[in-house]
Amino acid sequence: MSEQVEIDEDEAFGITDRLVAEVLAAVEAQDALAVDALLDPLHAADIAHLIEQIDSRDRRDLITVWKGGMDGDTLSELDENLREEIIALLAPAELAEAVRELESDDVVDLVEYLDDDQQEAVLGALDAGDRVVVEQALSYPEESAGRHMQSELVRAPEHWNVGDAIDYLRSEVVLPDQFYHVILVDARLKAVGYVTLGRILSHPRNTPLLELVEDTFRTFHVTQDVEEVAQAINHYHMITAPVVDDDDRIVGVITIDDAMAFLEEEAEEDLLRLAGVGEGSLSDRVIDTTKQRFPWLAVNLLTAIFASMVISLFEDTIAGLVALAVLMPIVASMGGNAGTQSLTVAVRAIATRDLTAANVWRVIRREVLVGLINGLIFAVVMGVVGILWFGSPMLGAVIGVAMVINMVVAGLAGTVIPVLLERFGIDPALASGAFVTTVTDVVGFFAFLGLAAAWLL
Amino acid sequence: MSEQVEIDEDEAFGITDRLVAEVLAAVEAQDALAVDALLDPLHAADIAHLIEQIDSRDRRDLITVWKGGMDGDTLSELDENLREEIIALLAPAELAEAVRELESDDVVDLVEYLDDDQQEAVLGALDAGDRVVVEQALSYPEESAGRHMQSELVRAPEHWNVGDAIDYLRSEVVLPDQFYHVILVDARLKAVGYVTLGRILSHPRNTPLLELVEDTFRTFHVTQDVEEVAQAINHYHMITAPVVDDDDRIVGVITIDDAMAFLEEEAEEDLLRLAGVGEGSLSDRVIDTTKQRFPWLAVNLLTAIFASMVISLFEDTIAGLVALAVLMPIVASMGGNAGTQSLTVAVRAIATRDLTAANVWRVIRREVLVGLINGLIFAVVMGVVGILWFGSPMLGAVIGVAMVINMVVAGLAGTVIPVLLERFGIDPALASGAFVTTVTDVVGFFAFLGLAAAWLL
């Protein structure tokens, strides 16, 4: 990183707060030369990051001062939520120049969620040929391999040898910016295998390419879910995933760097869904964030009211012994936490294919046992706390038994609920939390107050 | 996927439950030929996945029947928690043969957490040269780039041209299994740039390599955190990350497929930590899982008891109006959920470098505003519920105001606590949850019961 003095020495990537401040100062001074000098040495990913971190007024001023500086790579790197805002600030000629340099998958990624006017403006800037490719990709379903593949690839007839391939690559053909394989096709353009560039380079010119193909070659259909393809790329350590149409003809590739970005997004989505946060980013407006958070809170309110109804069944019991009101949240809270532990493990294991029909019963048994053992330990602790705090061994017994029941139920519900949701085609990351905490709240309050009503009064 | 009939047509990767059943049947019948026939066509990643999914007795039987089938790639793909178990089942000669075919980073990954005896057995199987390389890597800190880099790479003097590179690659040198760049070094072996294989292949033999170098070249130090390097690879869309020593001499590379696996692991770790689950996997034993889950539950018990103490301050108030005991969990629960939403967004944004000193105040202000708006909406809802259910407008007012207070506090605590923890060097994914729910429980109960004591009695 020696060439970029502004990057923090301890950090592997990213920009410093000082750099952000300097850019903002230069923007405020309307000093276009200084802005250029600060931004020019930066990678597009870092410029995008900087644009995301400043507020919307500063963004507008920056784009105005930094005339013509915005290129296609930087646009591609920008957070989806900001692209419309930024594209609206660009002059048509500036936008056209920026998108023309992009590969087809980056153009698709850029335009797929733009409104119609902006989409037309971008597509209109492309050459006719590129435009056809982009429109073809947009015709595939959202989140499909066809939508996200890069159509730029290098293919070769299967009967070629190393020399043929080198001569072809050295000819005047337009090559993709980055490519790692030459894909071999038969006379009907069906993909039959691929050869890494390293193997081509390290073999004599007369070696047939078919002798050098990788034995792990596999193809993906255009309608395959792109996240599945990304997971396969990770699972099989692939660099290039060839995408084929109904006739097994090669139509594009998904490369590992795009797959990596997909998996990162997907992991983030699962994390945020588990926490009841919809899609969203720090650069969203307050009103958008409020709307994203609202549904989960509304569901939680319903389940909380449901749990309160369980409590209200025991109003007389609580009136008879107020200590119950003091202690009851502990049982519900421990069950909720144990349930969240189990469901998080289950949701993740379902996503990574580690939890399957082959081991689901073993996993359920394990979670129940773990709940039982931890439940017994905490039952003893809480029994002692009950006795010491309220001087009542019987109250200690009630909270202890309720704790064991709720933690066993938590282990069971935390595993079974995500598995069932998955089987019914519902995203377990999105919906498990509400179901599991409802179960542990209801069971926790019911067990504790019910046992208290039976044993104490 | 046409060549692997056992793979589910709808799935991009993985193995079918039917295949697992067939393998287990063949193992039970001690039919070595059938086991071989089933496993041989599979990718090492799928075999490892299968071994992870069956129970430990079946694993032992499988290894016994599948004599000599276990290769280095399959060992590398296995879950860390299973490696000791499997390695202990292998005959020394079998183990030696398996590890000799691996690249240096895979050997390091395989042995770094083995006990000393097993580590010695694996290292002893290596050639002297390979052993030195592995031991050198093990001398770097855990989680450092030096520990996880692959030492096999292709470098070339900076004055070479395309023809020199091709002749060198075609000579008898041992090349890495996979490589994507030739790294240029000066006379002192200092890395000065790299060239993609695609560029070498597409240029005439007399083109100097220095004319073809990528303008985004950057290097990483051996002691740099490997996760940071993986994030940088994703951020800058790199395929190869060169690793250098104190003198800027190239000593290894981290490739994008390893970086992808690191980031996946890291995302999983963050997710599990947020849920209070330590490291662990589905193949852990009950006792190990119980131990991993225990600490977070113990912390949660303490915070729950603390919240109960707050409730006990208001025992007289509750005795005077039992409806308070019925409604109080709703306020705490809504605050807890809103707080979890804010903290999850904050923890993730800290991990991805989206939340920095440059925008922390704007994010805090936004979270508080979101909490205020949603709080006001739910305050109205709960006010109405309070009136309808208990016929008391004043009780409705108490729960409404308490709700607003707690959700504003949730937005504030959910952002400030992870930021502060990060600043003090504590992993926010690990510790934020306990702090934030303590705050929302205590504030929720205190606001609701305190207002009730002041306004209702």
From TrEMBL, chains A, B:
Under InterPro entries, the record lists: CBS_dom, CBS_dom_sf, Mg_transptr_MgtE_intracell_dom, MgtE_N_sf, MgtE_transporter, SLC41_membr_dom, SLC41_membr_dom_sf
Q: Which GO terms describe its cellular component?
A: plasma membrane
CBS domain sequence ranges: 212-269
Q: Which Gene3D superfamilies does the UniProt entry name for this protein?
A: CBS-domain, MgtE N-terminal domain-like, SLC41 divalent cation transporters, integral membrane domain
Q: Which family is it part of?
A: Belongs to the SLC41A transporter family.
| Function as written in the Swiss-Prot or TrEMBL entry | Acts as a magnesium transporter.
Give the protein name, as stated in the record: Magnesium transporter MgtE
Q: Which organism is it from?
A: Yoonia tamlensis
